[in-house]
Write a structure and sequence with these properties.
Distance between the termini: 93 Å
Structural class: alpha/beta
Order of helices and strands: EHEHHEHEHEHEEHHEHEHEHHHHHHHH
CATH architecture of the domain at 3-291: Alpha-Beta Barrel
Radius of gyration: 25 Å
Number of helices: 18
Length: 439
């Protein structure tokens, strides 16, 4: 069996508004609704909707032989429901074909796997339930945020009943081995591991529209020629991409839609490759070996490590401060707080604080609402400070916090009373003015 496994990541964060120091304790709404809606609508119209339409046409054209898989973050699903429900409908149409697999991840698109196993399991379960409720299928393959993986994470994922997990085919963990085989977790061999072929994936995701690239322009014929040059013993080519590759990162003018439209037919006519979903790969192939990943890897930057999110002191301080709140979060019953907790964890907020400018600078700047990583850090910490005050008020644990909670309640009641009296005063003035006008 020689097969191609396409996997696409769909995610957009809830971006925060400019939240000043003087907003702390006074304004508890953190989100830039205009920017969030504008970006989601733009990407939906340029990328998600036209690409979904094209994939549906290709699946029907090739009578089910063309297959793909998606990992849609819980954050993205929340935004689709708010701003673009038609995108969810288009994914449902793809789901009905039986040629599309939906993967599970953390509901917050978070880095929690690096911090707390119980919270990680909770978020994965929440996301799996959301996928099942939305698309009518229960995920059996897991994809962690940013393809982050280690042996211990894989063991946890295996304990939750997933058959396979996908991650980066990083050179420093593969050594001389090829990513084009199925592997297994080093601790629990029952969990199959699919490794991204980052060269062939990045040829599409990053280099496709680069006119200075020596292989530009990339055509379907050329790409299939490269596939045919791969060692005949290699069994699976895992192509893992951001879905925004189509129409957003690579604009329509680059020919990206023409490329993906022509690719399946060229594969079927000029190669012995087929297309499979991750679960089909896990069911059909036998692992050739265990893959040993003692230290977490990711799909980001040249290093394929965690430094894009936790590589400097700002990121680490924000990350540790956030998860220090977990004990109180478990006691919290306030739905608004729990929703904010969900959105505060999204990995993008830590990515915006990255100071890795040089070769990876353009990547880190894409969709970044901040001018500098320091601005991102200050904004996030201001929001986290307000969130902490609200959480302490909702779940006080000592006499001082109880007193502060009572004071906060009194201030809120006072503000409400002032607003109510101002409205009554306004009505009285309008009534008085109306009486004078009548006379």
């Amino acid at each position: 069996m020689r097969t191609i496994c396409f996997y696409f990541q769909i995610h957009q964060p809830f971006r925060f508004r400019r939240y000043r120091f003087f907003d702390i304790g006074n304004d508890h709404y953190y989100y830039d609704d205009y920017t969030n809606e504008s970006i989601l609508r733009k990407v939906s119209n340029k990328s998600y909707l036209p690409t979904n339409k094209l994939l549906l046409e290709l699946i029907n054209k090739h009578k089910g032989k063309f297959k793909v898989s998606f990992s849609i973050s819980g954050i993205a699903i929340d935004q689709f429901k708010l701003y673009a429900p038609e995108v969810i409908d288009s994914f449902k149409m793809l789901a009905k074909t039986g040629c599309v697999e939906f993967l599970s991840e953390t509901c917050s698109h978070s880095l929690v796997a690096l911090k707390n196993a119980d919270e990680f399991k909770k978020q994965v379960t929440q996301h799996s339930n959301t996928i099942e409720e939305t698309f009518g299928v229960k995920p059996t393959v897991f994809r962690n945020t940013e393809l982050i993986y280690s042996d211990l994470m894989g063991e946890i994922v295996a304990s939750m009943g997933f058959k396979a997990m996908i991650t980066e085919g990083a050179k420093h963990i593969l050594g001389w081995k090829s990513p084009n085989y199925l592997y297994c977790n080093a601790i629990n061999p029952r969990l199959k591991i699919l490794l991204k072929n980052y060269i062939l994936s990045d040829d599409i995701a990053f280099r496709f529209g680069n006119k200075s690239w020596c292989e530009w322009p990339l055509t379907a014929d050329k790409y299939v020629k490269w596939l045919n040059q791969i060692d005949k013993k290699d069994e699976v080519i895992n192509l893992f991409l951001d879905y925004e590759t189509f129409g957003e990162h690579q604009s329509k003018e680059t020919g990206i839609f023409d490329f993906i439209s022509a690719l399946p037919e060229k594969v079927f006519k000029k190669s012995k490759f087929t297309f499979s979903t991750p679960s089909e790969v896990a069911d059909s192939l036998q692992p050739v070996a265990a893959i040993h990943v003692p230290t977490p890897i990711s799909w980001a930057d040249e290093e394929r490590d965690l430094t894009a999110w936790l590589g400097n002191e700002m990121q680490q301080e924000a990350f540790n401060k956030l998860y220090s709140l977990l004990p109180k979060i478990y006691k919290c019953q306030d739905n608004k707080l729990l929703t904010d907790w969900k959105y505060l964890q999204t990995s993008d907020h830590f990515y915006y604080m990255c100071t890795k400018y040089f070769s990876d600078g353009d990547v880190h700047a894409y969709f970044n609402p901040y001018e500098t990583p320091y601005e991102a850090f200050i904004n996030y910490m201001n929001i986290l400070s307000d969130f902490t005050i609200r959480l302490n008020s909702a779940v006080p644990e000592n006499s001082m916090e109880v007193e502060l909670a009572n004071l906060s309640t009194l201030l809120t009641e006072k503000d409400d009373k002032i607003l109510r009296l101002e409205k009554e005063l306004k009505k009285m003035r309008e009534k008085k003015l109306s009486a004078k006008t009548t006379k």
